[in-house]
């Protein structure tokens, strides 16, 4: 197994854990659990929006499942170039967090709608570690 396959596999495993969290423990404050959003805790028992909230959570989990399945196929059947460009695609797609999601969660945190306070910083470091990790893997695999 080469370094690209290892990096993609680690990402697949972490995303698998996040999907399990979303499907089976969405109220968790770990991983991608939505329990960090104070509004979720209030809305999850609201009959008017409960189905909609559940749909959105499952939609996110399903979208993550697509990444996982593609990652598995690339690790098992992809050649070096496919794996290399998959890592590039993962870096770009993960960086998209800073375009829409980071500003939104930072705003929610500053409005005291996130618990624990400062969670947006933790999420920033987690996303940044993915980008740096994949960048290192990319550079090492090219050298």
List the SSEs and their pairings.
Elements: H1 3-24, H2 38-43, H3 47-77, H4 80-95, H5 101-110, H6 119-142
Structure overview:
By secondary structure, the protein is mostly helical. Helix content is 76%, strand content 0%. The protein has helices at residues 3-24, 38-43, 47-77, 80-95, 101-110, 119-142. The radius of gyration is 17 Å and the shape is globular. Helix 1 (3-24) packs across helix 4. The protein has six helices and no strands.
The number of helices is: 6
End-to-end span in angstroms? 17 Å
Poorly predicted regions:
none
Which range does the strand content fall in? Answer: under 5%
Give a short account of the largest sheet: none
Secondary-structure element string: HHHHHH
* Approximate helicity band: over 70%
Output the radius of gyration. Answer: 17 Å
Number of domains: 1
Can you give the mean pLDDT?
93
Structural class by sheet pairing and helices: mainly alpha
**DSSP strand tally:** 0
Q: What best-fitting shape do the alpha-carbon axes yield?
A: globular
Compact description:
The chain is mostly helical. The protein has one domain.
List keywords for this structure.
0% strand; mainly alpha; globular; 6 helices; 143 residues; single chain
